[in-house]
Amino acid sequence: MSLFHRSTAVLYDTTEYQFMQMSKVPTLHFQASLPRLPIPKLEDSCRRYLNAQKPLLNQKELQDTSSCVSKFLTSEGQSLQKLLLQQNAENSHTSYISEPWFDMYLQDRKPLPINYNPFLVYVPESDPKYDAQLVKATNIVISSLRFLKSFKNNILEPDVFHMKPEKSDTPLFRNVTRLIPSRFSWYGAYLFKAFPLDMSQYKNLFNTTRIPELGKDRIFHDPSAKHLVVLRKGHFYTFDVLDANDSIRSPKEIAACLKIILEDDRPANKYPVGVLTSSERDQWARARSYLVEIGNREILQKIDSAVFVMVLDDEIIGTDYNKLIKTYLHADGTNRWFDKSFSFIVSKDGYSGINFEHSWGDGVAVLRYFQDVKADISKKPRFHPNEVDDLSKENVNVERLQFSLDAKSKGIIDQQKADYQAWVNRLSIDFMVNEEFGKDHYKKLGISPDAIMQLAFQLALYILEGKSVPTYESCSTAAYKHGRTETIRSCTLETKAICVAMTQKQIELSKSELKKMILECSKTHNVLTKEAVMGQGFDRHLFALRRISENSGSIKPAIFQDSAYNALNHNILSTSTLSSPDIMAGGFGPVVSDGYGIGYTIQDKRLGSTVTSYEGSHNASHYVEALKHAFKSIHDVLHT
Questions:
Q1: For residue 100, what are the contacts with CB-CB under 8 A and spacing of at least 6?
Q2: Does the keyword Transport apply (predicted)?
């Protein structure tokens, strides 16, 4: 249903407006020469696996697990390793983990929100007038398109980790490396101590949706689409943000379209189809098939192919941090489309952030996009508050997408609304901010800031429950072609020893002895981190071997039947760092029903954590209080 007709509009066709960056080095210049993700030696992965089990098992359990590992190392493991190496050699264009990792995500039938989709929220703008909902949303759309066009035209700056920025983040580096043929370019960067990162995930950042299907979902991508889909009050709207020549429409045109949507005074949609994307995946696949059957194919295709989804919430968040987390992590589902590669959510009072689907990619691509857009809208916004009153409705064409629903589909929506609300009501959320200490402080002490955060997470759990638990810290392997993530197993014998010493009164150690233990803990954590970054963890390797075993139909090796293996992969503490000065909040849900989801940030002068858990199993607020106590105890030791 067309609300307004579009007339010819003046487009901003200058290079400066159309592109965010004009990189001298082509965006994908390093992609062809990226090193391949290494497959660890079987004996190394087995050794690392046993080390991760040691703080979690008693002596008898460890003996049993060691026997399983020894058998695996000398028998089935050898044949599985041989098959993995063979498959890897036959697929030199990718990594050994890429396909099975995609499959793992796409085959999982759990709902996307809370279980998988993380969120990130921007810090406010320095000038509050630019946080007005219409102004903020308009500038986000424009900057996102500038990022997209820069990527499509191969002029977005390549993703490079600069070990020594003063030497490599320079014009000389760019002038030299751009002249090196792509198949050798990585080696040129390496001479500058710069490490190009994999950018294969960027193509799925825009115009992409995860489509639910029975048994296994699929990723849909349509790079030709030029429209945005906007959600407000459970209603769907669409308009073109790119013209026939792929030029970004003018700021006033985009703002006028968004203003029309914000001024649409119809009540909230009684049957919001978006809530169905919060369903269990097979359930949603059946519901979606039925929606297609009753005449909604074109609308679904419009949503699936959109550049991204812009969500305009009528919620006023104010200073309620818990409400902020709930809004961006899950909300009530009625004004969301969780299947989209990402949705940008802007609240009525100008908070803005993203909720993103995780199967297509990891945090590296999303964080780069998130930071680049923030820099763009803060340094040079394209739409200004004083232009709001000048907007004309005559030059825009906004279409409201109306689903055809019958009694059956309405019943499905009603049921999912109730089920989803009951589920999110069980979620316990809290947060902690420590502005006394930060990255700079710990580095002066010669201690890894990340090691301190992970130790605090362990100590907080030990304070509450008196035990160590399986812990997952996500680590990117983007330094390799089609790398995904590796796991840092941050619960170690060293962290356990400190937790025991700091919580059991019968153990009397001096603060200098405890400080020495913390330093050793930091060294161990640094080794584990370095191994993970270099593709030398054990989790992904064993995962790949297990998938080969399952696909072969042979008897599952004892190591994978061992209760200790299943327990280790039941991650009570699931943690991930979301460090950027642009991030006000970020997080995700617990990955198991009796666990915690901990998104944390390490800034120069500040530490923060967002904690989630399920009521009935754990209470996030109790954990946060224990975490505050843990930090105080650690700081008391370090400052003697």
A1: 543, 544, 547
A2: yes
Q: Are the C-beta atoms of 572 and 519 separated by less than 8 Å?
A: no
Q: Each residue of 426-435: pLDDT tens digit? A: 999 999 998 8
* 3-state secondary structure at position 602: strand
Q: Return the pLDDT at 436.
A: 84
Phi, psi values for residue 230, rounded to 5°: -120, 135
Q: What share of the chain is helix, strand, coil (3-state, %, to 5)?
A: 45, 15, 40
DSSP state of 286: H
DSSP state of 389: G
Query: 494 near 211, Cβ under 8 Å?
Result: no
119-122 and 160-162 strand pairing: unpaired
Buried b / exposed e over 556-585, threshold 16 CB at 10 Å, is: ebbbbebebbebbbebbbbbbbbbbebbbb
Domain of 361: which CATH number? 3.30.559.70
Rounded Cα distance, 107 and 114, in Å:
17
C-alpha to C-alpha distance for 577 and 492, rounded to whole angstroms: 19
Helix (H, G, I), strand (E, B) or coil at 36: strand
Domain range enclosing 441: 430-639
DSSP letter for each residue of 512-542: HHHHHHHHHHHHHHHHHHHHHHTT--SHHHH
pLDDT at 351 > cutoff 90:
yes
Tell me: do 404 and 436 sit in the same domain: no
Sign of the alpha-carbon torsion through 197, 203, 208, 214? negative
Q: What is the pTM of this model?
A: 0.95
Residue holding tokens 């986000």?
A: 140
**pLDDT band with cut points at 50, 70 and 90 for residue 482:** very high
How far from chain centre, in Å, is Cα 231? Answer: 22
**Strand ranges inside 406-454, DSSP E:** 427-434
In the residue annotation, 618 being an active-site residue is answered as: no
In terms of DSSP bridges, do strands 309-312 and 227-232 run parallel, antiparallel, or are they unpaired? parallel
Q: Looking at 358, 384, 570, 622, which residue is catalytic?
A: 358
DSSP reduced 3-state for 292: helix
**Does residue 359 sit in the same domain as residue 490?**
no
Domain identity same for 407 and 497 = no
Tokens for 411? Answer: 């019943």
pLDDT digits (tens, 9 = 90+) for 270-299: 999 999 999 999 999 999 999 999 999 999
Across 234-329, the runs of DSSP E, i.e. the strands, are 235-240, 309-312
Q: Which of 425, 442, 471 is the last residue of a domain?
A: 425
Q: Which residues of 607-637 are buried (b: 16+ CB within 10 A; e: fewer)?
A: bbbbbbbbeeebbbebbbbbbeebbebbeeb
One domain for residues 405 and 451:
no
Given a contact cutoff of 8 angstroms between Cβ atoms, the answer to whether 371 and 580 are in contact is yes
Q: How far is it, in rounded angstroms, from Cα 377 to Cα 130?
A: 9
Question: Domain boundary residue among 425, 458, 482?
Answer: 425
Give me the residues paired with residue 343 across strands: 309, 355
- Smallest CA-to-CA distance from 257 within 333, 302, 312 is with 312
Alpha-carbon distance 515 to 551, whole Å?
48
The span from the CA of 595 to the CA of 614, in Å, is: 8
For 155-173, b/e burial (b = at least 16 CB within 10 A) is: bbbbbbbbeeeeebeeeeb
Give how far Cα 158 sits from Cα of 154, 184, 186, 353, Å: 9, 15, 12, 24
User: Is residue 319 domain-resident?
Assistant: yes
Q: What's the CA gap between 499 and 467, in Å, rounded?
A: 9
- Quick check: 146 and 19 in contact, CB under 8 A? yes
Q: Taking the mean position of all CA atoms in its chain, how far away is CA 582?
A: 15
Give the Å distances, CA to CA, from 175 to 58, 179, 290, 469, 527: 58, 7, 56, 50, 35
Residue 365 DSSP SS3 = helix
Residue that has been written with the tokens 């940030």 in this structure: 601
